[in-house]
Amino acid sequence: MNDFPATASIERYRVVHQTDYSYQSMVTLSQQYLHLTPRNFQYQRSLSHQIQVDPTPDDWSDGSDYFGNLTKNLTITTPHQVLVVHAESTVELYERPGLEQIAGGAPWENLQQQMRQSQGAQSLEPFQFLYSSPHILCSNALQQYALASYTPGRSSLDAALDLTYRIFDDFDFDSEATTISTTLDEVLQGRRGVCQDFAHLMIGCLRSIGLPARYVSGYILTHPGEGQVRLIGADASHAWVSVYSPEWGWVDFDPTNRCLVQHEHITLGWGRDFSDVTPLRGIVLGGGQQILGVSVTVTPLSEEPGGLLG
Fold first, then answer.
1. pLDDT for 19-78, tens place per residue?
2. Are 132 and 248 part of one and the same domain?
3. Are residues 130 and 90 in the same domain?
4. Rounded Cα distance, 191 and 174, in Å
5. Any bridge partners for residue 54, and if so which?
6. Which sign does the torsion angle of CA 119, 202, 219, 266 carry?
7. Domains held by the chain: number
8. Interstrand relation of 192-193 and 172-173 (parallel, antiparallel or unpaired)
């Protein structure tokens, strides 16, 4: 059960996410696993959601994964050379703790020590985000980078904010610099990457010093330049980091945008790293080479006719 705040939502968004696959030759069978349904939790509620697929699947099934993220499985047996998956969602966001609220607190070493000891059922949830995962390997290099922020006696969330700022300052956003197979050591050396890399990097730093952190997949509102209109399909999927705090639970930080997550991030789901919450993955029979196209549009409902919040 989700405990939504008693206060009114502070923003509502419509998200349109379309994925297009074009294949070199005919696909005779396609099975796909989707993480495209926004998650309900304390700071977010999904008001509506639908997914349209062309060709029409022969079989659909709804489910949830190990982390509680909503999923869809689909099977297509109609021969095709183009696959289109169109997801449209409306969500409302609630107020999260701000910088002044999370400032201070117990030293980060206290949490590190707690994670080393058995705490029973209460510690099981953060405990599973404490170790290396397929795309995040803990290392001495990551530990050393983290410790420049996690100085002795500093509070855990103050240090996490500092680490967020440092990653933003030390690394350049470059969509051509990395691929899904680029290692964190390579990202650390090259000092370039995309949001997925920076989220993995920050998580790797935290886990390397014995602190739990999880990967969050979703979207972020982008702002058009002054005098410009919001472009359809110009946005993209986004990724950021959720840091565990005994006082506040999970608190989200975005190293790509140098900020504490507030009311412009829409959450699809979370896991250990990107591999747990890939928006769409699957297998096909046939097809040959493929071309992938993705377009995302995030629009505040306050910008749509009749969409002003009361």
1. 999 999 999 999 999 999 999 999 999 999 999 999 999 999 999 999 999 999 999 999
2. yes
3. no
4. 10
5. 84
6. positive
7. 2
8. parallel
